[in-house]
Amino acid sequence: MCSRNDNEDGSESYMEAKSKPLWSSTCQKCSGHNPVIQILQIKHAYCKNCFVTHVNHKFRSTLGKSKMMRPSDVVLAAFSGSLKSHAMLHLLHAGLSEKSHKRFLFKVQFIYVDEGAVLGLSLAERIANLRAIATLAEQYGFSGHFTSLACLFDSSGPRCFPLNKNSSLTAENSLENELQLLFQNIVSLTAKEDMLKQLRKQLLLLAAKELCCGKVFMAHTSTDLAIQILTDVSLGRGSLMHHDVTFCDFRDKDIKILRPLLELSSKEVAFYSVYHKLDNVFIPSLCTKMASDSSIHNLSKQFVMDLMENFPSTVSTVFRTGEKLGSTSSPDNSEEDDNSCIICQARLEVNLSPCTSAQATEFSRLISSLGPLGFDSKTLSSISGSNGAESCCSGSASNCCCNSNQDSPSLSDIMECCCYGCRLILHDLKSVSSLSERILEQVRRRKSLNSMRDSIKDFLL
Amino acid sequence: MPVLCSSKCGKNAILKRPKTGDALCKDCFFWAFETEVHSTIISGNLFKRGDTVAVAASGGKDSTVLAYVLKVLNERHDYGLNLVLLSIDEGITGYRDDSLETVKQNRDDYQMPLKILSYEELFGWTMDAIVAQIGRKNNCTFCGVFRRQALDKGATQLGVNCVATGHNADDLAETVLMNILRGDIARLQRCTSIITESETEGTIPRVKPLKYTYEKEIVMYAYFKRLVYFSTECVFAPNAYRGHARAFLKDLEKIRPSVIMDIIHSGESLQVKDNVKLPVRTQCSRCGSVSSQELCKACVLLEGLNRGLPKLGIGKSSLANRARDQQDAEKKEKVICDF
């Protein structure tokens, strides 16, 4: 393989950058009695009016093409206060106030997820954010709700509360502490971000169930999704990636997560917001202001942005690659509950072939700890089919999970109920006991079901 | 305080494995490295007893380590393989002629027969001559496409059952990323397979025994075993888009070393929608090798060189066809004028 990337003078030379196209002086749509305001997608110049129509049209056509929306649907729009999600609310509102035949028939509610506990904000700051969000969304007249990440740790009780300008947050200390402890126990920023994303998604699904909404709208743009593709691949989530990067995430049986902005780039959304003078509430997240090499997500973002500078088609190429991915099996054969990942609800991968990267890694771990003395060729054949959960006790014995009490499941038990990507989060987790009680409960249930199945398996037909 | 080897053999560790983070002593590392390759070979069913296997040898670190390890494992586990070295001489002065010396050294050290095929005898062009005609841009396309075919032809001439190449885990992860960036869904699907599928009869499968081995560990292995390898980089030109993917991967690896295996896992488990059109593999109508087009890439590139239109196989095929037709028309005119 050719591995030469450098010129003789030591400078790095990659593929040559495309030359920037000239700005067109007329609008492509209406041939320009209006001054052209912005160039999009390299060559497309639109005037302001044509541009806004174009964004509206794309949004509507994405929903229309999917053929998923029914008049009776109630949609829960995830609203974080960001420009993107505000633009989504604006577009939805525009669609609902259209003239009769073009009007959206479904109903819209929105929800704000308070993540302040993880981000280290004070209660006062969080309440201020909450009220700012309520003020922002007030003009649209949708019924608003809010929920807090810590609610995930609450096994009973309501999770959603009505959001208005006087809403207030009562941080329930025990739950908040549990949540904070979990994130303190995760050692890498990459795993923290991944965990936060999974928790947020879980919470949105639970909230949608509570509010009887069948669909959740998320404001991901094509730029976000291109970054997500590279991040997911790097996080080992390849097999489930199509859920994260296409229009519909149908991992949950009852509730679908849809991404109606996915045909728009973040640039288009930003200009749409500017033209409509949309405000936003900026809430810094885990990776805000961090160096680009602080997490895989940040690095992917930086990488895509850098490439976009010279290769403007990067995002659309990567995004189209993602569109071709999908599950080869029909979506609804996940009838068995115990066959899905307890953290991200994806269907667990069935072992495809005897020779995979996951097994190779596990094998490396095993033999690095056994050494030539503790190893014989029989071990080789006996592990080749398993997914290597036995490596748990071979590590240093002092903090081994198997020594902990019977009540809480061991790391290997939890690993068995997780997909490859979520196992990587667990690898960066210092103590499994800080996982939410809901997850641990599921692990226990699955474990006991498995042992029951084992004991009767000789008699099963 | 020195770190002890994590296999509890009592010796001091001398290295940390990039793949798992374990600290190992020299002997345990050799053992682990070889056992892992052995495990890959066994679980992937790469070889059959009695097979003749050509090791694609460039003289670089990957192929040198591959040849050495295959020889060691063949003797230790009695695979019953007949190993030969196969080298391709691209005709790059100051690079390939030197690295071929290394391969000849390997031939003597490991007692394996060596076959060298040159671009010149196969295609009538050396890389030096090609670069003289097309310049430094795009010449890696020629080199890569021709090498692929040269390996196939060499393997056929030697009558081997399969060709083992030195692709390592880093190469594979890089290829996965690159195919995503290029939107090449067909290659994305097959680039991680350990054996190239041989749907069409007569093609010789290529296998990658070092698929799960980190590049760093290969260097470590070669370093501690004191294996001779050639480490000068090719004198010609950059390799396009791959450079971006490579730089990205190196940065990712700094954040989380397991990322290489994670990317390969993603590549292995990717699923493509049923309704996506994929190119159908057929045979080249001119030379008979596997191709998704009427003519294989090597034949198109070669035609371009011979016609004096080296860009023929580089850009869009419609442009290539136009250039070809134009030249044909001009030739015809000339013939008419000659009368």
UniProtKB/TrEMBL annotation, chain A:
<dbReference type="GO" id="GO:0000049">
    <property type="term" value="F:tRNA binding"/>
</dbReference>
<dbReference type="GO" id="GO:0016783">
    <property type="term" value="F:sulfurtransferase activity"/>
</dbReference>
<dbReference type="InterPro" id="IPR014729">
    <property type="entry name" value="Rossmann-like_a/b/a_fold"/>
</dbReference>
<dbReference type="Pfam" id="PF10288">
    <property type="entry name" value="CTU2"/>
</dbReference>
<keyword id="KW-0175">Coiled coil</keyword>
<comment type="pathway">
    <text>tRNA modification; 5-methoxycarbonylmethyl-2-thiouridine-tRNA biosynthesis.</text>
</comment>
<keyword id="KW-0819">tRNA processing</keyword>
<protein>
    <recommendedName>
        <fullName>Cytoplasmic tRNA 2-thiolation protein 2</fullName>
    </recommendedName>
</protein>
<dbReference type="GO" id="GO:0002143">
    <property type="term" value="P:tRNA wobble position uridine thiolation"/>
</dbReference>
<comment type="similarity">
    <text>Belongs to the CTU2/NCS2 family.</text>
</comment>
<dbReference type="InterPro" id="IPR019407">
    <property type="entry name" value="CTU2"/>
</dbReference>
<dbReference type="GO" id="GO:0032447">
    <property type="term" value="P:protein urmylation"/>
</dbReference>
<dbReference type="GO" id="GO:0016779">
    <property type="term" value="F:nucleotidyltransferase activity"/>
</dbReference>
<feature type="coiled-coil region">
    <location>
        <begin position="172"/>
        <end position="209"/>
    </location>
</feature>
<comment type="function">
    <text>Plays a central role in 2-thiolation of mcm(5)S(2)U at tRNA wobble positions of tRNA(Lys), tRNA(Glu) and tRNA(Gln). May act by forming a heterodimer with NCS6/CTU1 that ligates sulfur from thiocarboxylated URM1 onto the uridine of tRNAs at wobble position.</text>
</comment>
<keyword id="KW-0963">Cytoplasm</keyword>
<dbReference type="GO" id="GO:0005829">
    <property type="term" value="C:cytosol"/>
</dbReference>
From TrEMBL, chain B:
<feature type="domain" description="tRNA(Ile)-lysidine/2-thiocytidine synthase N-terminal">
    <location>
        <begin position="53"/>
        <end position="231"/>
    </location>
</feature>
<comment type="function">
    <text>Plays a central role in 2-thiolation of mcm(5)S(2)U at tRNA wobble positions of tRNA(Lys), tRNA(Glu) and tRNA(Gln). Directly binds tRNAs and probably acts by catalyzing adenylation of tRNAs, an intermediate required for 2-thiolation. It is unclear whether it acts as a sulfurtransferase that transfers sulfur from thiocarboxylated URM1 onto the uridine of tRNAs at wobble position.</text>
</comment>
<dbReference type="InterPro" id="IPR035107">
    <property type="entry name" value="tRNA_thiolation_TtcA_Ctu1"/>
</dbReference>
<dbReference type="GO" id="GO:0005524">
    <property type="term" value="F:ATP binding"/>
</dbReference>
<dbReference type="InterPro" id="IPR011063">
    <property type="entry name" value="TilS/TtcA_N"/>
</dbReference>
<feature type="binding site">
    <location>
        <position position="171"/>
    </location>
    <ligand>
        <name>ATP</name>
    </ligand>
</feature>
<keyword id="KW-0067">ATP-binding</keyword>
<dbReference type="InterPro" id="IPR020554">
    <property type="entry name" value="UPF0021_CS"/>
</dbReference>
<dbReference type="Pfam" id="PF22082">
    <property type="entry name" value="TtuA_LIM_N"/>
</dbReference>
<dbReference type="InterPro" id="IPR056369">
    <property type="entry name" value="CTU1-like_ATP-bd"/>
</dbReference>
<feature type="domain" description="2-thiouridine synthetase TtuA-like N-terminal LIM">
    <location>
        <begin position="7"/>
        <end position="29"/>
    </location>
</feature>
<dbReference type="GO" id="GO:0000049">
    <property type="term" value="F:tRNA binding"/>
</dbReference>
<dbReference type="InterPro" id="IPR000541">
    <property type="entry name" value="Ncs6/Tuc1/Ctu1"/>
</dbReference>
<dbReference type="GO" id="GO:0002143">
    <property type="term" value="P:tRNA wobble position uridine thiolation"/>
</dbReference>
<dbReference type="GO" id="GO:0002144">
    <property type="term" value="C:cytosolic tRNA wobble base thiouridylase complex"/>
</dbReference>
<comment type="similarity">
    <text>Belongs to the TtcA family. CTU1/NCS6/ATPBD3 subfamily.</text>
</comment>
<keyword id="KW-0547">Nucleotide-binding</keyword>
<dbReference type="GO" id="GO:0032447">
    <property type="term" value="P:protein urmylation"/>
</dbReference>
<dbReference type="GO" id="GO:0016779">
    <property type="term" value="F:nucleotidyltransferase activity"/>
</dbReference>
<keyword id="KW-0820">tRNA-binding</keyword>
<dbReference type="InterPro" id="IPR014729">
    <property type="entry name" value="Rossmann-like_a/b/a_fold"/>
</dbReference>
<keyword id="KW-0808">Transferase</keyword>
